[in-house]
Amino acid sequence: MTAHDWPLWEVFVRSRRGLSHTHAGSLHAPDAQMALRNARDLYTRRSEGVSIWVVPSTAVTASSPDEKDSFFEPAGDKPYRHPTFYEIPEGVKHL
Amino acid sequence: MTTPAPTPTTEKTADTSATAAALALGDDALVLSHRLGEWAGHAPVLEEEVALANIALDLLGQARVMLSLAGDEDELAYLREERAFRNLQLVEQPNGDFAHTIARQLYFSTYQKLLYGQLATGDSELAGLAAKAVKEVAYHQDHAEQWTLRLGDGTEESHRRMQRACEALWRFTGEMFQPVDGVDIDWQDTERTWLASVTSVLRQATLTVPEGPRTGAWAAGAGRQGLHTEPFGRMLAEMQHLHRSHPGATW
Amino acid sequence: MTAVTAETGTNKHGSPAADEKDASAYAAAFDAAVAADERIEPRDWMPEAYRASLVRQIAQHAHSEIIGMQPESNWITRAPSLRRKAILMAKVQDEAGHGLYLYSAAETLGVSRDELLDKLHSGRQKYSSIFNYPTLTWADVGAIGWLVDGAAITNQVPLCRCSYGPYARAMVRVCKEESFHQRQGYELLLALSQGTPEQHAMAQDAVDRWWWPSLMMFGPPDDESSHSAQSMAWKIKRHSNDELRQRFVDICVPQAEALGLTLPDPDLRWNEERGHHDFGAIDWTEFWDVLKGNGPCNEQRLTQRRRAHEEGAWVRDAAAAYATKQHNNGEATA
Predict the structure, then answer these.
(1) Beta partners for A55?
(2) Structural domain tally of chain B?
(3) Quick one: average pLDDT of A22-43?
(4) Is A47 part of a structural domain of the chain?
(5) Is C18 left (phi over 0), alpha (psi -120 to 50) or beta?
(6) Do residue A8 and residue C43 have CB atoms under 8 angstroms apart?
(7) Considering only CB atoms, which chain B residues are within 8 Å of A33?
(8) Per-residue pLDDT for A37 more than 50?
(9) Which Gene3D superfamilies match (chain A) (predicted)?
């Protein structure tokens, strides 16, 4: 690592208990401890969070937009995975 | 419109003791917040601009609450003469390089954390405020500690600068443990805890604990009595100039 | 190391190696996405010129945030009440934060913050010229909030719908936080305007000095703006410079009246037919002159920025060295 280049970290913030962490943005920090603190100062200064994750950007493996079709389209023609697919006689409850 | 600032050294009724405590601790927070505000636009890295401003804002918030306990916050901040300020000389010391700022932060936030921690569990007027402030101050102490480790155990240059800063400010640390009226704690015990805590951080940061005296030769450590160091007059001149140029104006 | 964000997931320029036939298919997909008002995301194929244009604009925007800290922080230590001091500190802090959000957005395009800062420091990338004007009195803090932030918001709100996802998302955050900036400026000026005669004069003087430079913030007239047409086609920009400028003037006129202050333009009047205010000619010579570096504070602003960066180098080095040591120790004990 050259001195002037602090690595980049991705910041995930849980906005309140009961919700999952959501990607908030990124920042630079020399190490994980400082990344957490910088994230606290930058991304929660208006009480936006109750918990933070920081992840080195290089540690994230992302799907490629080129694989978009093969990754995501096959799920599109399987409506039987959704409850609205099924017809239930009127008056039947708790289903 | 100018009511003279309360002088904390008069009768020792419960009321003036509380005022004295609020002034001493309020002035500490006010002055250090001002110094940290001077970093705006000058910090070593953008992330640190945000961090230093957060600390400055916490301190300014504490100052406003405490000064309001003692009187009108703006009259106290802007219309007192230098000799009426009760802050520690430590907090008025100029920012210097980043190492000096961090050493000042380490010494002061460790002190403030111990003080507020004890006040929060007591039954003084300051207990409520202290309970809130101690959380802020714990973060300031952590920030200072993290940076002390990185500067002390970073490069040769950062080690040298941090060591020098720790030495330079050491003689202002004795003053912190002069009892403050209205703050009913065991000062000697607080001092021992402070020393142990700072020593541990400095050692972990591969720094040498300064050996010099913790009070200076002449009146160092007299900030609580209203005797300050030269840079403080300039700081106040800058801070008060605009307010004083428009007597009676509202902003 | 190079700027690799999770969003890009690659340090190449995103465009997959493709033969020409593929390239034209990618281009068609890009055009279709823009036309359908979909967002372009970092790893999508994009024309190099689109990428370059975004880097230029986002970097300039980020630089403006951090240079913009200077004229205002100039008054932090002299703020005339503790309430005003807290507000101003929080505002200047937000600007640092906005700079950070924007540099992050730029980094998703494969440039590093260090590269961008180098370009700022060496004068190869610009920042908004407005910050080359000085803050001479306390009232200037109010005028910046009301007029400069007001103009910036007018410019920025449409950017929340910009075609590039990370930029649009950063702008949503910026705009949300920015709304207090303008209001505090307005409130500050109102207090001065309704204060002593000296305070009122101070407020009027500040508005006199900041009005015209604020109008220049929307950039040159549409027929002279070099990047505008392409940026609009790409939906990086949504409205023309002149449209936004007109919108801003129309918003400001009643606000100035409520303040009890005069906008320094004898030609400013309501035009019933157009349904807009007419306003006087802008001195574009001054605009180009300041842009070229001859403004009152160009030299001062860049010098302070460079100095902060250079004087901070040992601190950044120290933290990096410490991280390396900790990492190595961790491996040694593992």
Answers:
(1) A10
(2) 1
(3) 95
(4) yes
(5) beta
(6) no
(7) 146
(8) yes
(9) Phenylacetic acid degradation B
CATH number assigned to the domain comprising residue B28: 1.20.1260.10
- Alpha carbon distance B130, B117 (integer Å): 7
Distance from CA of C4 to the nearest CA of A (A): 6
Does residue A39 lie in a domain region? yes
Q: Which domain holds residue B199?
A: 17-245
Q: Which residues of chain B are under the pLDDT cut of 50? A: 1-3, 6, 8-12
**Domain membership flag for residue B231:** yes
User: How high is the pLDDT of residue C5?
Assistant: 54
- Do the chains contact at A41 and B150, CB–CB below 8 Å? no
Asked if residue B141 belongs to a domain, the reply is yes
Whether A57 has its CB under 8 Å from any CB of chain B: the answer is no
Q: Answer yes or no: is B175 within a domain.
A: yes
B7 found inside a domain: no
Identify which of B38, B74, B250 has the shortest CB distance to residue C82. Answer: B74
pLDDT in tens, A57-81: 999 998 887 777 788 888 888 888 8
* Domain range enclosing A9: 3-63
Domain count for chain A, please give it.
Answer: 1
Q: Which of B22, B29, B91, B94 is nearest to B58 (CA)?
A: B29
> Which residue out of A2, A4, A15, A54 would a mutagenesis test of the C interface target, given it has the greatest number of C Cβ atoms within 10 Å?
A4
How many secondary structure helices (H) and strands (E) does chain C include? 14, 2
Structure tokens belonging to residue C79:
């703020």
Instruction: Enumerate residue ranges in chain C where pLDDT < 70.
Output: 1-21, 333-334
The answer, yes or no, to whether ipTM is higher than 0.90 is yes
pLDDT, residue C234, reads 87
The answer to whether A64 contacts chain C (CB < 8 Å) is yes
Reported pTM = 0.92
CB–CB contact A29 B47 (8 Å): yes
Q: Is residue A85 part of a domain?
A: no
